Hints:
Elements: H1 3-11, E1 22-23, H2 28-36, H3 42-47, H4 53-62, E2 66-67, E3 72-73, E4 85-89, E5 95-98, E6 103-107, E7 116-120, H5 125-132, H6 145-157, E8 163-167, H7 171-177, H8 179-188, H9 190-212, E9 220-224, E10 228-229, E11 232-233, H10 237-257, E12 263-266, H11 275-280, E13 285-287, H12 298-305, E14 310-315, H13 324-338, E15 343-347, H14 357-370
Parallel strand pairs: 1-2, 3-8, 8-9, 9-12, 12-13, 13-14, 14-15
Antiparallel strand pairs: 4-5, 5-6, 6-7, 10-11
Helix pairs in contact: 7-8, 8-9, 9-10, 13-14
Amino acid sequence: MNNRERVNAIMHYSAYDRVPVVSFGFWRETLEKWAAEGHIPAEDASGWGDGNDCDRRIMDKLGFDFNWGGGVGTANFLSPAFTPELLETRPDGSEVRRQSDGLIVRVKPGVISIPAHEGTSLTGREAWEELYLPKLTYRPERVDAKRLKDACDQAHAMGLPMYLHLGSLYGNIRSMLGIEELSYLMLDDWNLYVEIIDTVGGLCLKCAQAALALGCEFDYCHFWEDICFKTGPLIRPAQFSQLVGPWYKRITDECLKHGIDIVSVDCDGKIDELVPIWLENGVNTMFPIEVGTWNASIAPWREKYGRVIHGVGGMDKRVFAQDFDSVDREIERLKALVDLGGYIPCPDHRIPPDAKWDNVRYYCDKFRKVFG
């Protein structure tokens, strides 16, 4: 079997020869460290991207089979994006910048983390209609047919699965506004709040329809959200179900029309309260199932929802900073989860800079021995 066949077999509870060793990429700083240590060329560290040639070379050296994040998509968000610009340099050396999504952030020199939120360019209806709405209008050129077809053909020629990225129905809105402004908007201007959700949802739907109509053989489809924290969602579940759920359903129905019955969502944090809403609306595969401080796992979800729910992720990447014994214990913990079926272990987020090269290589080698 090749890895495309393995993924499809596992996700449909069919027989397979082994579980693929799946990656979810790396922090840029991790690759820079490994390049400095001589494990990978500097050009692979600087040129890395999910599923690209640099990624494949790094994964080959470590022992991963493929990157779950290496899919292809359409221009289903701001197009053109905002031009990133420096707005202010402060006395402490920090820089206030406008990002490509219009969010205004403060970047501190030497700090490796998510930049501090300062504000947004989406300051009200006037800014919405003038700056954002034209960037969220559907145009046929948002769907690059050649790029989609070539990506599918290339992946399948290598025996790899390929997914269609369906976009983001709420995460991108959170990115445009920031959590604080988004929370105020739903109270200060409900009509605008709903209009933004419907505009983003409608654009993602039209892009998905056009991409799926091309006839490419996508193995699964995928959303990105990141709308949860370690204590739960950044939106009330009832509101999420009412306003966002129907857009998921419209899009996943389109996937089913084209024979695609596996749809995954990338959402960090404690997602438990949103899981039933995703399942009700056709999103059936949770990723990356962050172990975090709340011990996320597919096991309690499977017990509650049955085999309708699938998972990719749930491997505690923190063991990469420890030792071989820690890696052994983590792989042993994963055995019972793999036995549930419909589940593929994968590091529960991008591999961070404290990871040791030898530990990651050991994990890949041991995983391959244990799981086939």
